[in-house]
Each structure stands twice: as C-alpha cells, then as structure tokens.
TrEMBL record:
<dbReference type="InterPro" id="IPR052910">
    <property type="entry name" value="ABC-Purine-Binding"/>
</dbReference>
<feature type="signal peptide">
    <location>
        <begin position="1"/>
        <end position="24"/>
    </location>
</feature>
<dbReference type="GO" id="GO:0005886">
    <property type="term" value="C:plasma membrane"/>
</dbReference>
<dbReference type="Pfam" id="PF02608">
    <property type="entry name" value="Bmp"/>
</dbReference>
<feature type="domain" description="ABC transporter substrate-binding protein PnrA-like">
    <location>
        <begin position="56"/>
        <end position="327"/>
    </location>
</feature>
<keyword id="KW-0732">Signal</keyword>
<dbReference type="InterPro" id="IPR003760">
    <property type="entry name" value="PnrA-like"/>
</dbReference>
<protein>
    <submittedName>
        <fullName>BMP family ABC transporter substrate-binding protein</fullName>
    </submittedName>
</protein>
<dbReference type="InterPro" id="IPR006311">
    <property type="entry name" value="TAT_signal"/>
</dbReference>
<feature type="region of interest" description="Disordered">
    <location>
        <begin position="28"/>
        <end position="47"/>
    </location>
</feature>
Length: 388
C-alpha cells in the first residue's frame, strides 16, 4: 500500500470517528423526571373540610301551635332557635301529643328518625321520656317542668310564678270587688305556686283581696276554661288569671265586661278591652343554650329554672289605664328579681288555715317552692286531694 493510500485510510477513519461523536452529541436530551404527586394527606389538607350534618332536633307539644299561649310560646322559641342557628340544625315538631302512653310512641319515633336532641314540653311527658331515654343513650332528652333526670335526660322550667306575682300586683290595684279568680289546670306544685304567687302579689298592694279557684283538670280545653271563667265572674271575681293554655279566659272576661290577663304569650289581641297585661314566657334563651351545648359537646344532665333574671319571664303590654304607681311597682319587682334584691316568697307567709309556712324574714328556697301543696292565706277552699 502506498503512503497516499495509507493517509487516505487514516483520514477516513478519523472522519468516521468524528461523525460518530457528532451524532452522539446531537442525540435527544434526557427529559427531567416528573414532579412527584402530592401526598394524599397534603391533598386532603388543601381541600375544604366536609360540612357537618345538621343537628336534628324535635319538639313534642301538648297543645296545638295556634293555642295562643303555652304551645304557641314554645313554637315561637323553636323558630327563634332556627333563626339563631341557621343551617347548623334542622327542627321538627309534633303537636297535640297527649300526656299518656302515646307520648312514649312519639318520643320513640323521634329518636328512631335520627333526632339527637328532643324537647318534651309538658309535665306529663316525664315518665314516658324517662323510659325512652334509657333505650336511646346517644340521644339527649330535655323535659319541661319535671323533676326526674337521667344521664341523657335533664329538666328545664321557667319561673312562671314571677309572672303570676306581677299579674297579682296589677290585679290588686285594679279590682273593685276585691275578689280575684283563677282558672287552674292540674293541681301540681307548679300551678299551686302560681295561684299563691298571684295572691301574694295582689296582697302586696291590697291586703283585702281574696282569690277564688276553679279547676278544669286539663291544660287545654277552651270550653271548660270558658265555663270556669264564667263561674268565677258570676261568683264575684272581676279580675281573672289562668294557668291554662288557651285565650278562653281572657275572651270570656271581654264578653262579660271584666278584666283578665294573658298567660304564657301576649294575648292582647284576644280581648283588648279586658286585657290588663300578659305574663309571658320566652323559651328561646334556654333552647339556644341547650342546642349550643349539644353542638359543642358540652351537654350534661341537670336542672335549670329560669326567670326574669335570665330573660325568660316578663310582664308585657300593660293596659293604659293601669295606674302609673302600679307600673312603677312592676318595674321595681323586675329590677329586684334581676339583681336578687327582691324575693317573692319571703316570710312571714301563712297558709289559708293560718299556719305559718315561711317564717318572718326567711326566704323560701327552690326545694320548698318545688313542693308547694297548699293555698296561702287569702285563697279560698282546699287543694284538690287534700284531706285535711
């Protein structure tokens, strides 16, 4: 091989090697590794938390929601609760539930339908609710006006006797016959306490008054309430109060030209000429607190008894012809009840047989008030069932 051929072969080899190197250098660049997917926990953290299911709440009412009194007041409070809590809750109610075994069926239905907070709004629901509460430990039960509790059942009440006392102050100043009348429902401590407090309020401004009572043995019976009111007026009473749930007593007073009070709710519209004022209950503050307790996991058994101090009791829509001095007295009572400087049940207090039941300057405690089973001095007759 000549030197020329050798040089040509070497040159060709060099060019081949260079071409191969060039081709290698011009190859496709390696793609960067894809970013790792977010960890499941991090993804969950960035997403909005699921909205909690609303708390289901049920109410059992002894009367119709349109009774204008007791049940009407509870249902107004239920509506106020809905407005306050918004979509945190869902409420429902069953009206006209008898104080009987039927109440147990209603409570069981409510619990079975997923309600976790159940309110029973009358004294006669106590035993049925207590029985059902034992079978639904994950449900919280609230019983109005009772005294029995369980781990998942508590009681609540309003100091209606404070409203009755204020009604008495007005009645004592407005009566011309010095005879007052009360249409009473069922002879339990709550009702007896109200009759007595009404009388004590009247006596605070007019020691001459006496109180007559007619019992109808029902919470809501407009015909019986009308009949009882008529009998009281025919017996000389010119100012009436009731511890029943309808507006029948006020309407009867309107028709017969006498005066009367609204009870539980503002009843002015039912008898504007007869109406002297309404002793009202506002259940909303308690319902809001109880619901918030349940939502916050702070609900615990116990007993609550709220009055003027807590915004649960008031005397409203006092008639224009009530003397200014009487209105001022009502304001003083409200202030004293709010700040604790005034006690309705302060001795000396006698029963209507002359026996001292609260000693001079002593103040009856809640235990005493919860067991009232007598009439105070000035109330005529005997308590039903009293054999003395």
């Amino acid at each position: 091989m000549t030197d020329l051929n050798k040089r040509s072969m070497l040159k060709l080899a060099a060019l081949t090697a260079a071409a191969a190197a060039a081709l290698a250098g011009c190859g496709k660049k390696e793609e960067p590794a894809p970013a790792p997917a977010p960890a499941p926990a991090a993804a969950a953290a960035s997403a909005p938390a699921p909205k909690p299911e609303p708390l289901k709440i049920a109410f059992a009412y002894v009367g119709p929601v349109g009774d204008g009194g007791w049940t009407f007041a509870h249902d107004n409070a239920r509506k106020a609760l809905e407005k306050e809590m918004g979509d945190k809750i869902v409420t429902s109610f069953v009206e006209k539930v008898p104080e009987s075994a039927d109440a147990e069926r209603v409570f069981r239905d409510m619990a079975s339908q997923g309600n976790k907070l159940i309110f029973g709004t009358t004294f006669g629901y106590m035993e049925p609710m207590l029985k059902v509460s034992a079978d639904f430990k994950d449900v919280k039960f609230e019983h109005a006006t009772g005294y029995k509790t369980a781990e998942n059942m508590r009681t609540y009440d309003s100091r209606t006797y404070e409203g009755a006392y204020m009604a008495g102050v007005i009645a004592g100043s407005m009566t011309k016959s010095n005879t007052l009348g009360v249409v009473a429902s069922i002879p339990i401590p709550e009702v007896l306490r109200n009759i007595n407090s009404f009388t004590l309020g009247a006596q605070s401004v007019n020691p001459k008054v006496k109180t007559k009572v007619v019992w109808v043995n029902e919470w809501f019976s407009p015909p019986k309430e009308t009949e009882a009111a008529t009998a009281l007026i025919n017996g000389g009473a010119d100012v009436l109060m009731q511890n029943t749930d309808s507006s029948a007593v006020l309407q009867t007073a309107e028709k017969m030209g006498k005066r009367a009070f609204g009870w539980d709710s503002d009843m002015t519209a039912y008898g504007p000429k007869a109406h002297l004022g309404s002793a009202v209950i506002n259940w909303a503050p308690y319902y809001i607190k109880a619901t918030q307790d349940a939502l916050d996991g702070k609900w615990a058994t116990g007993q609550s008894w709220w009055g003027v101090k807590e915004g649960a009791i008031d005397m409203v829509s006092i008639a224009a012809d009530v003397p200014d001095a009487t209105k001022a007295k009502i304001d003083e009572v409200k202030k004293g009840l709010k700040d604790g400087s005034f006690a309705i049940w302060k001795g000396p207090i006698l029963d209507n047989t002359g026996k001292e039941i609260v000693a001079k300057d002593a103040v009856a405690d809640d235990k005493f008030l919860g067991g009232v089973n007598f009439y105070v001095k000035g109330v005529e007759g005997k308590v039903p069932g009293d054999k003395k």
